[in-house]
């Protein structure tokens, strides 16, 4: 039965008010004082997590046969002339997608996802995985949001969510089976409190205090962690843009179709993810061997310095992992603001561009934006099969993450900051510099993979060609006449005067001679 993420959005909106109150209360009540430090009183205890996509795709869907415009702008043969995502030894580059899960039932993602290396932070995380996280303290419970335009946006319920928050709406959703869910005796039969839905036991007429002999209810079986469970479809779309395998029935394919996805399920249609679980997801991705991490989520709420999320990002960068994050979709009003983790130093923040290589109207501007990439009418994979069209910076980020995977495959010795500099250096830009709307420009995958003779440590935009002009000959400043100069001047005068005198005398002699000749010719002759 087809499922639409629009319905999930309605569930999300219905639970919004209750969740905000519950999250704020839970965050305030559980702010720890141990670990790296207590949460600042000025820091929001919870914040919404945005999945920046339209959320209107129905799945399963029919294949889209044509080639998407975002791929038509690339000469794929040139892009893949050296690699499609494997290094020279044949090992695929591992790209972590920290999102809503990645459904492997879509044929284009079969063989593209390493589910065993993934994690499900919503259902549970093994102790070994907890030990692998580098920022796993309970220092901030700030929610994060995924960057899919007009997509589900809900506040995170905080570290101790209220069991009743949105319970009514969650029960409505139980009738639809979860695509990709592991078969379980209790799957789909649980209400918001985690107990199985069943008819109530006949109530005795005695008061509860007088019936202690009633046997306790059997605790329901807990669902198993499943990083391939994607109730939203968001993570499946993100993964497809990076690594979808070719399909004979569609013109869509991933930017790095031989790379491998590590799925980290950290968010859902209820906005359950927080900055803390996002930090844990980053740590798990690093531990699983990710060379690139894609985060199509953000929070605009203030995070204290050295929060779990910031420390996790720093750790990933120090361990030579490229971190790519969406800039966000709140740009319609033109307000410049920072979103996290995109605004953290070292993260490649990606804005959305349209068919004209201009900023998409919804794309969040800011000085932290590194590059832009197609984010309008983006085709990608959906759960259970097929493709759909969506919009948002959520789908711009994986476009760039795919390019980063190709660079890491071709140049495995390049450091993470050199990969970022290469992408920024080769981006298409109308002006020779950086701006807050598209950063260093719109990513050019082919240039990034072909104009790569040597690694760059930072962007070095070529300035306008300066004309090489000869320095002017400046006359010396006269400060007086030396004796030698005076002698030379006087000698010049004497010689000049003598020459004039000689010329005058010579001229006079010629005139006199001519005069005498004329008189002799005109006078009487003697006999």
From TrEMBL:
- Record carries keyword Transmembrane helix: yes
- The answer to whether UniProt assigns keyword Acetylation to this entry is no
Membrane topology designation: Single-pass membrane protein
The protein's UniProt keywords, in alphabetical order, are: Cell membrane, Hydrolase, Membrane, Protease, Serine protease, Signal, Transmembrane, Transmembrane helix
Highest taxon of the lineage: Bacteria
The transmembrane segments are 490-512
Q: Give positions of region: Disordered.
A: 28-54, 131-232, 456-483
Which Gene Ontology BP annotations are present? Answer: proteolysis
Localization, per the record, is: Cell membrane
The record's active-site residues are 99, 234, 394
Extract the InterPro entries matched here. Peptidase_S8/S53_dom, Peptidase_S8/S53_dom_sf, Peptidase_S8_Asp-AS, Peptidase_S8_His-AS, Peptidase_S8_Ser-AS, Peptidase_S8_subtilisin-like, Peptidase_S8_subtilisin-rel, T7SS_pept_S8A_mycosin
Spell out the molecular function terms from Gene Ontology: serine-type endopeptidase activity
Note one Pfam family from the annotation.
Peptidase_S8
The region annotated as signal peptide is 1-22
One Gene Ontology cellular component: plasma membrane
The Peptidase S8/S53 domain extends over: 91-441
Q: Which residue windows does the record flag with biased composition (Low complexity)?
A: 28-38, 131-143, 177-188
- Where composition is biased (Basic and acidic residues), the residues are 207-227
Q: Which family does it belong to?
A: Belongs to the peptidase S8 family.
PANTHER family in UniProt: CEREVISIN-RELATED, PEPTIDASE S8
Name recorded for this polypeptide = Type VII secretion-associated serine protease mycosin
Taxonomic source organism: Streptosporangium nondiastaticum
What is the taxonomic lineage of the source species? Bacteria, Bacillati, Actinomycetota, Actinomycetes, Streptosporangiales
